[in-house]
Amino acid sequence: MKRISDINPLGEERPNPSERERNKLRRERLQRERDEGYQKLAELCNLGEYDMAEQLANRHFNWGYEIVYGVVMERID
Q1: CA atoms of 9 and 15, how far apart (whole Å)
Q2: Which helix (H) or strand (E) covers residue 30, if one does?
Q3: Residues pairing with 71 in the sheet
């Protein structure tokens, strides 16, 4: 563990990712959020909480899912 006096506040030890790496990380994060969102919606539907699942899907429109007759479906725009 480093002493506080040894830490550079400008963070030069941390590399700056390139724009391509940032985009890749952003896409991975969004896909991970989308997958986790699907799991939450599916679990709510399995528990019979269709209204709650529909509210959650509407609140997180960017996940790309909707609830149709108690089933999680991909939203078609």
Answers
A1: 14
A2: helix 19-46
A3: 68
Q: Which residue has the tokens 């699942």?
A: 53
pLDDT for res 54: 95
Backbone angles phi, psi at 73, to 5 degrees: -125, 150
Structure tokens at 48: 């019979």
- For 26-58, how does the pLDDT look when each residue is reduced to its tens digit (9 = 90+)? 999 999 999 999 999 999 999 999 999 999 999
Residues 6+ apart with CB under 8 A from 55: none
* CA gap 20, 62 in Å, rounded: 22
Other Cβ atoms less than 10 A from the Cβ of 55: the count is 13
Would you state the pLDDT for residue 5?
Answer: 75
- The span from the CA of 28 to the CA of 37, in Å, is 14
